[in-house]
Amino acid sequence: MTLREFLDKECPKEGGCMVVEFQEVDKNHPTYFLCERFKAANGDIFLLNGQFYFDYEFLWEETEREWNIIYKREAA
């Protein structure tokens, strides 16, 4: 599964958001990402902490790290 597939499956529809915890094995503190979905002319686009999702694909590809969903808010 790619990062795009994960976000497409788990991220709420436009207007909602989710918080994902990224835990590195060799570090004691996690990093948190706010994930949002937006509609674009050619489909959906995802922002993580205000940046495009593909800026973080290198983190997803590492096998020693985990991404855990800790909060989801569906659009009203």
Comma- or semicolon-separated keywords:
17% helix; 76 residues; alpha+beta
What's a concise summary of this model?
The chain is α+β, with helices and mostly antiparallel strands and 76 residues long. It has helices at 3-10, 57-61, and strands spanning 17-24, 31-40, 43-48, 51-52, 65-73. Helices cover 17% and strands 46% of the residues.
Task: Please give a structural write-up.
The protein contains two helices and five strands; from the N terminus they run αββββαβ. The mean pLDDT is 88. The chain is of the alpha+beta class.
Number of beta strands: 5
Structural category: alpha+beta
**Cα-atom radius of gyration:** 12 Å
Helicity range: 10-25%
Spatially, the strands of the biggest sheet line up as 4-3-2-1-5
SSE string: HEEEEHE
Proportion of residues in extended strands:
over 45%
Q: For the report, how would you describe the main beta sheet?
A: 5 strands, antiparallel
Number of domains: 1
- Distance N terminus to C terminus? 29 Å
Name the poorly predicted regions.
none
Q: Mean pLDDT score, rounded?
A: 88
Structural shape: globular
Number of helices: 2
Give the oligomeric state: single chain
List the helices and strands and how they pair.
Blueprint (H helix, E strand, L loop, with lengths): L2 H8 L6 E8 L6 E10 L2 E6 L2 E2 L4 H5 L3 E9 L3
Antiparallel strand pairs: 1-2, 1-5, 2-3, 3-4
